[in-house]
Design brief:
The chain has 15 helices and 24 strands. By secondary structure, the chain is an alpha/beta fold. The chain has 3 domains: 104 residues, Udp-n-acetylmuramoylalanyl-d-glutamate--2,6- Diaminopimelate Ligase, Chain: A, domain 1, CATH 3.40.1390.10; 225 residues, 3-Layer(aba) Sandwich (UDP-N-acetylmuramoyl-L-alanine:D-glutamate ligase), CATH 3.40.1190.10; 163 residues, Mur ligase, C-terminal domain (Protein-Tyrosine Phosphatase, Chain A). An 8-stranded mixed beta sheet has the order 8-7-6-9-5-10-11-12, with helices on both faces. The protein has a 6-stranded mixed beta sheet with strand order 17-18-22-19-20-21, with helices on both faces. A hairpin with a 2-residue loop joins strand 15 and strand 16.
């Protein structure tokens, strides 16, 4: 397709009111378009460069580099200060929206060739995406996976760089999925991606809303803005596409009202999809799910009430898309776990239980601790911190939750980034101390995360449950402008090995 054809098709979707006149550029756009990007470093001959305004940099400033590398057109949301000679500078009202549709057109709209399930919410997106993928696979439909932990395309899997990739990467991976024989894709859709239009141009077969709790308020102006970003997923659904909505969440009813075809689920309220009596142990879940298409007997290695909700979300999506009930049951039973989500690191030969989880907000931490509390034979020991350069207001809230539901609290570093980790710990401690005094909770601060994990596992008594929260699947730590290798699971295993050795010697 020529650059002229690509621009005409994409901008017809992205900016129908802009009335962009491409005819004035004559032969400048007659060559084949060989790529679309917002990153001037990726530009090659025949590429279209979209200049985006970022938080730290303005893409328009890199237009000369893009032209020097071979860009045949620049798309931006304002006129050029000094337009490069001979290269069209095309002004649109929304450059991000233009990028999304240019990418979708360039890659041939791969989302129209498979069933894409978009999952949004504060907590539970990753687990729900894994569950949806497992259900499709059990039904004989190869399913790609895009999310916080991994990008899976056929048999190829790579660590995710961000929850929802930028539009050109997203569309390119979906094209690769179709090429690999995938008939479905389970996709986490972050609020950042929705606000920044990365998912525009994707044709979703279904959507799911898990919950909405405080997070990302360093990016969103307030909770209403955050909710509006999540709601955009359902505004993108085509007519008749089902929307699985969690009515247990206070925002669920409002989200359902915004959907053309809501299908609701809940544990504690009347809904289209609900569970029967729950059997919850450290080894997993067992319960029946009642759906409009019939009942499903669920057996899962996932643990805790939040995972009941995640299972209901996946079942609601799958049954709404007419996946056979027996395949739904097989898929749920076949998923052995999700990296960094209530991941059990200890084994039967250990005298304590050690769990790693990604919980990094006060609500996620509360859900985690409420899940773990009845499963602990003796004390519940929580190791956690809070991220730097992010919403500071949630730090004391996390501390308050940890002290309220734990017997021992070990405050440590998470990803301090550019901040002083001691200051972050002090701010977490503002929420810990009042609760700790009231409940006589033991509180320790260990700045180094490795030392904190080793300390908690070493000092635990037989029967204790140690929770290591905040980083989950992440295999790095960001501190003082550096990114260094770090994996909670690996460190916890080292600590358990040392504990076993000490017990044998003793």
């Amino acid at each position: 397709m020529t650059a002229h054809e690509l621009l005409a098709r994409a901008l017809g979707h992205a900016a129908p009111d802009d009335r962009v006149d491409l005819s004035a550029w004559g032969r400048a756009l007659d060559g084949a378009c060989r790529g679309v990007t917002h990153d001037s470093r990726q530009v090659g001959p025949g590429w279209i460069f979209v200049a985006l305004r970022g938080l730290k940099a303005d893409g328009a400033a890199f237009a000369p580099q893009a032209v020097a590398a071979g860009a045949v057109a620049i798309v931006a949301d304002r006129p050029a200060a000094a337009a490069p000679p001979g290269v069209p500078w095309i002004v649109v009202s929304d450059a991000r929206l233009a990028l999304a549709w240019l990418a979708a057109e360039f890659f041939g709209h791969p989302s129209r060739q498979m069933r894409v399930v978009g999952i949004t919410g504060t907590n539970g997106k990753t687990t729900t995406a894994y569950l949806v993928s497992a259900i499709f696979e059990a039904a004989g439909v190869a399913c790609g996976l895009l999310g916080t932990v991994t990008y899976r395309i056929g048999d190829r899997e790579t660590a995710a760089s961000r929850t929802t990739p930028e539009a050109p990467e997203l569309q390119g991976m979906m094209r690769d999925m179709v090429g690999a024989g995938c008939g479905a894709c389970a996709m986490e859709v972050s609020s950042h991606a929705l606000a920044l239009r990365r998912a525009d141009g994707v044709r979703f077969a279904a959507g799911a809303f898990t919950n909405l709790t405080r997070d990302h308020l360093d990016f969103h102006a307030n909770m209403e803005d955050y909710f509006a970003a999540k709601r955009r997923l359902f505004e993108l659904l085509p007519p008749g596409a089902p929307a699985a909505i969690n009515l247990d969440d206070p925002r669920g009813p409002a989200m359902a009202e915004a959907c053309a075809a809501p299908v609701t689920y809940a544990i504690s309220r009347a809904a289209d999809v609900t569970p029967g009596p729950l059997a919850v142990t450290l080894d997993g879940l067992a319960f029946e799910v009642r759906t409009p298409r019939g009942a499903i007997a669920v057996r899962s290695t996932l643990v805790g009430r939040p995972n009941v909700s995640n299972i209901l979300a996946a079942v609601t999506v799958a049954t709404s898309l007419d996946v056979p009930l027996e395949a739904v049951a097989r898929g749920l039973a076949g998923l052995r776990g999700v990296p960094g989500r209530f991941e059990r690191v200890s084994s039967a030969k250990d005298d304590i239980a050690v769990i790693v989880d990604y919980a990094h907000t006060d609500d996620a931490l509360r859900n985690l601790l409420e899940t773990a509390r009845p499963l602990a034979a003796r004390r519940l020991i929580t190791v956690f911190g809070a991220g730097g350069d992010r919403d500071r207001a949630k730090r004391p809230l996390m501390g308050m939750v940890a002290a309220r539901l734990s017997d021992v609290v070990v405050i440590t570093s998470d990803n301090p980034r550019s901040e002083d980790p001691r200051r972050i710990i002090d701010e977490v401690g503002l929420g810990v101390q009042p609760e700790a005094r009231q409940r006589s909770v033991e509180v320790r601060t260990v700045v180094d995360r490795r030392e904190a994990i080793l300390h908690a596992v070493s000092e635990a008594s037989a029967g204790d449950l140690v929770l290591i929260a905040g980083k989950g699947h992440e295999q790095y730590q960001e501190l003082d402008g550096r990114t260094v290798p770090f994996d909670d699971v690996t460190v916890a295993r080292e600590a358990l090995d040392a504990r076993r050795h000490r017990v044998r010697v003793g």
